[in-house]
TrEMBL record:
The keyword Metal-binding does not apply. Residues 17-27, 41-57 have a biased composition (Low complexity). Residues 1-16, 68-77 have a biased composition (Polar residues). The modification Phosphohistidine is found at residue 169. Residues 1-77 are annotated as: Disordered. Keywords: Phosphoprotein. This is Unnamed protein product. Gene3D superfamilies: HPT domain (1.20.120.160). Signal peptide: none annotated. One of its GO terms (cellular component) is nucleus. It comes from Ambrosiozyma monospora.
Length: 244
């Protein structure tokens, strides 16, 4: 059983919109602005700008570049020189191939909640690169939190178990706000197992008897989170044509 990203409490759905380069030390230390506020403000700006949009001035046509190929160079004859024809041959270099990811690709992917992600893309009409900047910020912060989870998994204690739950909760909300539904689902497992809650009838959690068993459940969820995270990052990197 997984939660519906659209039904999440907005207070837990947070990522910073303009703090590129920040690596968090703990989830509580990260000062964030609710992504719902960012999106709401962008929506209001979008509606206002629709009434004041001006047509862009057409760019003057540029003279076509001469295509490389065979050219004849004529030498004007004189008493000692005979007209000569020189042939220059060039070879076209094919462009670097890249996986083509389209809107349809994202719609059909189980990694992305297209309904939510589409709303972010609409914000690009008012602020170019808005959606990509949110994804980049999430990636920067998530990489730091993943390292913290990895470290916590090496030291079994009730306190660290609660901390793991907190970090899973934080990443779940941020992923849900961006439509990264598989990352969200796995982070929800971390959150619940950290509270010793077998919410999804996972067999290992059903058989859990001590803290070590719950750590094993979180380890399973953590590894699957990383897999979904990498797959989502690669997919969106190809979509935006950017290195993420």
């Amino acid at each position: 059983m997984t939660s519906n990203p659209q039904s999440l409490n907005p207070s837990s759905t947070q990522i910073p919109a303009t703090t590129a380069g920040l690596t968090a030390t703990t989830a509580q230390d990260i000062k964030v602005q609710p992504v719902t506020e960012v999106i709401e403000q962008q929506s209001q700006d979008h509606q206002q700008q629709q009434h004041h949009q001006q047509q862009q001035q057409p760019q003057p046509p540029q003279a076509p570049l001469e295509q490389p190929g065979t050219q004849d160079l004529n030498v004007e004859p004189d008493s000692n020189v005979t007209a000569t024809s020189i042939t220059i041959t060039t070879t076209a270099v094919p462009p670097t191939s890249r996986v083509e990811v389209t809107q349809e690709t994202l719609e059909n992917s189980d990694l992305i909640n297209w309904t939510i992600f589409q709303e972010l893309l609409m914000m690009d009409e008012d602020e170019e690169g808005f959606a990509l900047s949110l994804i980049q910020t999430f990636i920067e912060q998530a990489s730091g939190i993943f390292q913290q989870i990895k470290d916590l998994l090496t030291q079994e204690s009730e306190e660290n178990l609660n901390e793991l739950s907190s970090k899973g909760h934080y990443l779940k909300g941020s992923a849900a706000a961006l439509g990264l539904q598989q990352v969200q689902n796995q982070c929800e497992r971390i959150q619940n197992y950290g509270k010793k809650n077998n919410f999804d009838e996972f067999k290992l959690a059903s058989d859990a008897k001590d803290i070590g068993d719950w750590y094993a459940c979180i380890q399973d969820a953590y590894e699957k989170t990383l897999t979904s995270y990498d797959e989502s990052k690669n997919l969106l990197g190809d979509y935006f044509g950017a290195a993420l």
